[in-house]
Design brief:
Layout lengths: L1 H12 L4 E6 L2 E9 L2 E5 L8 H14 L3 E6 L10 H10 L3 E4 L2 H10 L9 E3 L4 H10 L4 E2 L8 E5 L5 H12 L7 E5 L2 H16 L5 H12 E5 L3 H11 L3 E5 L3 H7 L5 E4 L5 H6 L25 E9 L1 H17 L3 H14 L6
Parallel strand pairs: 3-4, 3-6, 4-5, 6-7, 8-9, 8-11, 9-10, 11-12
Antiparallel strand pairs: 1-2, 2-13
Helix pairs in contact: 1-2, 2-3, 4-5, 6-7, 7-8, 12-13
Length: about 350
């Protein structure tokens, strides 16, 4: 939680309020304001997502959100929510915790049932029902993203450790039978070795992880051999994986050239598991190619950037002359008259 909080605090610093003279008597600026209420979801079905409670609640709190609520499904009728999820959400600062899952949880958070404050934003991973409920709510409220199955991409060269790569792939396909796993390699021997190692590693998992991983690897596992690192970048950017590990030499080259990924793991020392649980950057990330246009959950998702402007009387009249002409060219006479009244009041005769 300290890592997640520290990273979120640095993100807050990257957005600032400002007011600036932009010329011709006009002053404009922006304010960065937190949303009022966040509804967070932590899955608790096949797996109990303790880290989701940490990632969502902590980040919302650092952003300055006034009301932060978390919902998570009960393990069963007798036991309620997983104890660790409750503890994590409470420790992170959740105002209320709802024992509720699925579509019902999203509806409760969305409309403020049991909390008294309807959510302005809904965040957190979940199954297809949770994701669809969030998607249907989008527009009336913000959402972090429409999330699909978990994905892992790995880029590796001849010096990479095939066993480490295979273990990392298996760590992600256990999420479910539709989770893609992609390896882009510059070395044929490495690719063949990984292909050999993955199946027995999956077979060594407990159930239901074993069955989920085996089906995912069979249906959605791919290994692509690329002759150059430039081509490897093209292939990876087309996939735009949620998680992308790079286990190669010259890591900075890849950092500079790769563009589409949810979160990047540079070097063998870091793995997706670190990002999912402990390293600091958020683990709620774009899937299904969405990293081509968006990043993952962050402090910025809980903040809105609003703008303001003011002007001198002389600037108002000057802008009025320009605005009225544009408005009439657009056939928007009402707009033009709002500009005209200021030209008349502030005494400038338009000579444009």
């Amino acid at each position: 939680m300290r890592q997640v909080r520290a990273f979120a605090e640095e993100q807050v610093k990257s957005l600032t309020n400002f007011e600036s003279d932009i010329g011709e008597g006009v002053t404009a600026g922006q304010k960065v304001l937190p949303m009022t209420t966040a509804g967070c979801y932590a899955p608790g079905g096949r797996y109990s997502h303790i880290a989701s409670a940490v990632m969502s609640v902590t980040t919302a709190r650092v952003a300055g959100v006034k009301n932060v609520f978390l919902a998570s499904p009960p393990k069963n009728a007798e036991e309620g929510i997983d104890d660790a999820i409750v503890y994590a959400a409470h420790y992170a600062g959740a105002d209320k915790i709802l024992t509720c899952g699925g579509v019902q949880a999203i509806a409760a958070l969305r409309y403020g049932l049991f909390t008294g404050a309807p959510a302005d934003i809904l965040v957190g991973p979940g199954n297809i029902y949770v994701a669809t409920a969030k998607r249907l709510s989008y527009g009336a409220v913000a959402i972090d993203m429409f999330a699909g199955p978990t994905e892992i991409g790995v880029i590796a060269d001849k010096d990479a450790d095939a066993h480490v790569i295979a273990v990392d792939i298996v760590s992600q396909v256990e999420h479910g039978p539709t989770s893609p796993a992609w390896l882009v390699t510059l070395d044929r021997a490495l690719g063949e070795k990984v292909a050999e190692l993955v199946p027995p590693l999956i077979a060594d998992l407990p159930e239901p992880n074993r069955s989920a991983g085996a089906e995912a690897w069979e249906k959605y596992g791919e290994i692509v051999l690329c002759p150059t690192r430039e081509e490897a970048v093209v292939v990876s950017d087309l996939w735009a994986p949620e998680h992308l590990e790079v286990q190669t030499s010259d890591l900075n080259w890849w950092l500079e050239n790769l563009r589409n990924y949810g979160s990047l793991f540079l070097g063998e020392e870091v793995t997706v598991t670190h990002g999912d649980k402990a390293s600091g950057p958020n683990h709620t990330l774009p899937t299904m190619g969405a990293s081509k246009y968006t990043g993952g959950l962050s402090v910025h998702k809980f903040l809105k950037v609003v703008t303001f402007q003011r002007a001198t009387k002389e600037a108002s009249a000057m802008m009025g002359a320009v605005s009225a002409r544009i408005s009439r060219a657009e056939r928007m006479e009402g707009h033009a008259r709002a500009a005209d009244v200021r030209i008349k009041k502030y005494g400038l005769q338009a000579r444009l």
